[in-house]
Write a structure and sequence with these properties.
Largest sheet: 8 strands, mixed
Strand order of the largest sheet: 9-10-11-12-8-4-1-13
Number of domains: 1
CATH superfamily: Bira Bifunctional Protein, Domain 2
CATH class: Alpha Beta
Number of strands: 13
Radius of gyration: 18 Å
Helix content: 25-40%
Distance between the termini: 42 Å
Order of helices and strands: HEEEHEEHEEEHEEEEHHHEH
Number of helices: 8
Structural class: alpha+beta
CATH topology: BirA Bifunctional Protein, domain 2
């Protein structure tokens, strides 16, 4: 797989900033909407109806569960706890486990055509290298490996000196792939981790489960602002991403396409149906 600089040097990119968007196709812009729109974009990108797309999204007070989380033996107790803390809860359609997102967490989707050439590892590596390059003037210590004690642990946890600040997942739709990352920009990462820790304690209790759920240690979670000792805002990171892409590629100023609306509506219905069990 080419590195991110080589990839962008021959590619036109559609850049979508939905971090402050109130509605998408007249639907409320929430986390359910974001996963549905990523599916719609992946479909049009996979059909070559749209160029590769980078999309920014931010949602406040939301816990995004993975499918295995929905099988926790006392999930209703955990959800009740989260709701009492003021959090919205959804089950996403991409891989991984529970993640807490709020106004200090930037989510980015890198949506690419697949055409059977982009392996799952290629997708992860592309995003990993992107983040390394994005912050290389501050550090060369961004690594990708599983951080024991983090929430939503995986081989592509991004960390600095063993403190995780981001996680990557993927969603594949026919010939399109959405590589998604959450990036803890600021705020209280330990508080976020403590909430997820409590959720698992309440949802699992002392039960034996086939699936291994994380024992969350808030001390292994951090923010990019703290780790780089630079106080970033969400908008500053978005601007940095746009400048990075613009320096290496042509940014195509297209909004969402007409063809994406019916796909989005269908995917949103599917997301709503998936989430009926936790309402």
């Amino acid at each position: 797989m080419k590195n991110i600089n080589q990839f962008l040097s021959k590619t036109s990119i559609r850049f979508l900033d939905h971090s402050n968007k109130i509605t998408i196709f007249k639907e409320s812009n929430n986390a359910l909407t974001s996963f549905a729109i990523d599916d719609a974009i992946a479909t049009t990108v996979g059909k070559n109806l749209a160029p590769p797309t980078v999309r920014m999204w931010v949602h406040d007070q939301t816990v995004v569960l993975g499918i295995p989380d929905s099988r926790l033996p006392y999930i209703e107790v955990g959800i009740n706890y989260l709701q009492k803390q003021g959090y919205n809860i959804i089950i996403r359609n991409s891989g991984g486990l529970a993640v807490l997102i709020d106004k200090n967490v930037l989510n980015m989707s890198f949506i690419l055509p697949n055409n059977n050439k982009l392996s799952i590892y290629d997708g992860y590596d592309l995003m990993y290298h992107f983040i390394q390059e994005l912050f290389k003037e501050f550090t060369t210590e961004i690594k990708a490996y599983e951080i024991n004690g983090s929430y939503c642990p995986g081989d592509y946890d991004l960390s600095i000196h063993g403190i995780k600040f981001a996680g990557i997942s993927q969603r594949r739709v026919r010939n399109g792939v959405a590589v998604q990352i959450y990036l803890d920009v600021g705020g209280n990462s330990k508080e976020r981790a403590s909430i997820i820790k409590k959720f698992y304690e309440l949802s699992k209790q002392d039960s034996e489960t086939k699936y291994t759920y994380p024992h969350v240690n808030p001390n292994v979670m951090g923010t990019i602002s703290d780790l780089l000792q630079t106080k970033f805002t969400i908008q500053q990171v978005i601007n940095r991403i746009r400048r990075f892409i613009q320096a290496r590629s042509e940014i195509v100023d297209l909004s969402l396409l007409h063809e994406e609306e019916p796909i989005f509506k269908k995917r949103l219905q599917q997301m709503n149906k998936r989430n009926e069990k936790i309402k």
